[in-house]
Amino acid sequence: MGMLAFATSVVMAWALATLLASPPAADRLPAADFFPLAMHNTWTHEVRFSGGDYHYYMTETVIKDNWPLLGQQSYVVAEDYEPLTDRAPEARSTVAYFRKNGFLYRYPWLDSEGDRIWDTRLGQGLDQIMPSPFVERTRWRMDLSTRVMARGGQSSSSATAWIDPSAIQVPAGTFRNCLRVETLTISFVPDPRKKSAEFALRHTEWYARGVGLVKAISSEGTAQKSVTELLRYRIHPKEHPNHHD
Length: 245
Known about the structure:
By secondary structure, the protein is mainly beta. The chain is about 5% helix and about 60% strand.
């Protein structure tokens, strides 16, 4: 895969990563799986970026459920981006998820082709996606560094997670009591004309129990950058009997 396609897919993957807020204590729910991972589980989202030039269908599929990573057995997910505009390049990325110490982590630095999976070593750090299992409101911080660009870059995020009682409507259906994750990410990217360029992105994500990500919104300041909505999904019956497409 070309460097531009990989960089694009990494940025888009980051445009789907997390900070969460909180409802009253009475809204606490029993421990639940808001991101069911099992072989062949698949989700298709529509991703629209502001300006209209970048518009994708993003299909995520679990292709491996026992890949060794950092001393853990991880789930590997291939993410295929089908461009819906002439300006949007075709892209593919590969990430891995594993659970440890009460969190679901994502390792975004992989690539894959067929049955072959490898570490690109284009960055360092892990995304803490959500508390897993989720029990009550939680806050956390995380850091990433990337070598996708010539001089690399750094980002630091703070996140909060809570149960949102609102009805979240997307093409795949209406979902209530989703796990809402809100993330504020401050990124520092080298700029040849300056010492560095800094920008802040705010991401809000909603995960439905037994389904996964149903909606995500990213914004920079008051400007909305992208909207992601779930179109269809298929959850393997061994993990969860839910099936919708």
